[in-house]
């Protein structure tokens, strides 16, 4: 999940039925503010082989701009 490199998500403290880490993620406070449209984040991050190569950089964008034309933010959030 590339969102973790922006600090938007973190591993949740949950386990599966066998007691092993469940692999679930949860939104950070920054992630919640970003989803609500209250934060602007750098547009890019460089990742190679699931490892951070370069910290987030570039023009700062809100969630609507980050989702681009592929998604309609208001449609996604309707009913929440």
List the helices and strands and how they pair.
Elements: E1 9-11, E2 25-27, H1 29-35, E3 41-48, E4 51-61, H2 63-67, H3 73-77
Structure description:
- The protein is of the alpha+beta class.
- The protein has one domain (2-77).
- Helix content is 21%, strand content 31%.
- It has helices at residues 29-35, 63-67, 73-77; strands at 9-11, 25-27, 41-48, 51-61.
- The strands form two sheets. The protein has a two-stranded antiparallel ribbon with strand order 1-2.
- The relative contact order is 0.16.
Task: List the main descriptive attributes of the protein structure presented here.
two-stranded antiparallel ribbon, 80 residues, alpha+beta, 4 strands
By secondary-structure content and strand pairing, the structural class works out as alpha+beta
Uncertain runs: none
Helix content: 10-25%
- Please count the beta strands (DSSP E, at least 2 residues each): 4
**What series of H and E elements makes up the topology?**
EEHEEHH
What Rg, in angstroms, do the CA atoms define? 15 Å
The figure for the number of domains is: 1
**Number of helical segments?**
3
């Amino acid at each position: 999940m590339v969102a973790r490199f922006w600090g938007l998500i973190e591993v949740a403290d949950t386990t599966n039925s066998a007691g092993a880490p469940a692999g679930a993620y949860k939104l950070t406070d920054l992630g919640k503010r970003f989803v609500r449209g209250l934060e602007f984040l750098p547009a890019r991050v460089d990742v190679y082989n699931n490892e951070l190569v370069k910290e987030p950089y570039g023009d700062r964008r809100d969630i609507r701009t980050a989702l681009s034309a592929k998604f309609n933010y208001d449609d996604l959030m309707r009913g929440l």
